Amino acid sequence: MLSWLAHEKEAGNHLELCECHYPATACLVPICSLHGAAVTTVEGIGSIQTRIHPVQERLAKCHGTQCGFCSPGMVMSIYTLLRNHPEPTPEQITEAIGGNLCRCTGYRPIVESGKTFCARMAEDPNKKRLTFQGKKMTWITPVTLNDLLELKVNFPKAPLVMGNTTLGVTIGAGYSLAQLNDALHFIVSDQPKEKTKTFRALLKHLRTLAGAQIRNLATLGGHVVSRPDFSDLNPILAAGNAIINLTFKEGERQIPLNGPFLERAPEADLKSEEIVSSVYIPYSTQWHFVSGLRLAQRQENAFAIVNAGMSVKFEDGTNTIKDLQMFYGSVGPTVVSASRTCRQLIGRQQWDDQMLSDACRLVLEEIYIPPTAEGGMVEYRRALIISLLFKFYLKVRRGLNKMDPQKFPDIPEKFMSALNDFPIETPQGLQMFQVGG
Ligand SMILES: Cc1cc2nc3c(=O)[nH]c(=O)nc-3n(C[C@H](O)[C@H](O)[C@H](O)COP(=O)(O)OP(=O)(O)OC[C@H]3O[C@@H](n4cnc5c(N)ncnc54)[C@H](O)[C@@H]3O)c2cc1C
Ligand code: FES
Question: Of 134, 159, 206, 403, whose CA is between 20 and 30 Å from 271?
Fold first, then answer.
């Protein structure tokens, strides 16, 4: 666990420094980056030579450890969560250990041990709202969306901290993916739904991208620049028309993410003197749909077998395609754009089964995965290219129907389940004990 003295907050008449704690994967942290940080390892919180920590004790008592290989990591993930949230929700426990793999226990007893710290929270969900009363201002941290909405009613003039620009939002490249997640949550809670489709698509993938340890270390700038073929965020950012702001000694320049840069065209690479300073993500509009789609072997901490970011913009009030963008990950050396397919479909006056059928044919002609491709499963990945497109098609049809049910028919009932995301559920189970005679 890494701890920094960070934000200054006003408490009474004086400013206080508060500590922030992050779980981190040791092998990814260069020692020089730790200047100013306190490092706590599992031995630092307790051991059988001194005294074991309640997290360790409860993990053992709940049978959350078998071979023990994963146990130190599990302990540190739960310990860090408790340092930041002394009374977490069961969902926070599940999320905190999303980046830890256990081969033996099936996770349920590990989650159960973490849940023993949630008890009081369950009794009084409002208890966690934080209020800091200063001379000139009051800072209130709501705990749930409903809590926030209530505060908006009670304090209509109080500003929401984060995301108040008119056209879109610029997010610093140094933001960790965990901070990006928090920032996007603020924006989504503050803005009308129609403006935040790109942000919501990003949030969905940020929940499952690697685990908390990685999301605390990885930055938005590093993610965008490294352009991995399996990137979960770049396809959505590209489909949402995000722009990268570059800074160098003599000035600044902007490049769109959905162009040659993403395709790794050599002439579009960053120059050696340039850094990414921020990423601008525009708001979506009413007749504009943006989605992120992915399929992986498990939801958290697994690279996508295929993922995609797609967007379609219609002429206002119609289903005439004005703009269409499709980006696929894990199908080539970098994120791949189905730009030829999109160009051929722009101008179509229907978003219907015929359009879908043409789109499927075109996209399979355009995106070629060679039989020797790294990762194999070529036929399966080709099937996923189509499946994700089909899902997007259904999502958009549903969206159009919601906007104008008279004009745009809903999707057949039998396809409804395709729209639901698999929930990330807290493992549950029952343990039976038999007393021997
Ligand atoms: C275990 C694990 C699981 C993962 N799972 C997923 C996953 O499921 N989905 C997914 O999409 N990704 C996944 N990733 C990838 C992860 O998202 C990227 O590694 C991460 O975003 C890179 O960010 P970073 O800050 O660590 O970059 P770094 O590794 O620090 O940098 C990457 C490159 O970008 C350059 N760079 C960094 N910042 C800037 C800047 N501001 N300006 C210019 N150049 C810069 C660096 O010099 C370097 O060349 C995973 C990674 C790990 C380790
Ligand atoms: S107890 Fe063996 S890997 Fe988790």
Answer: 206
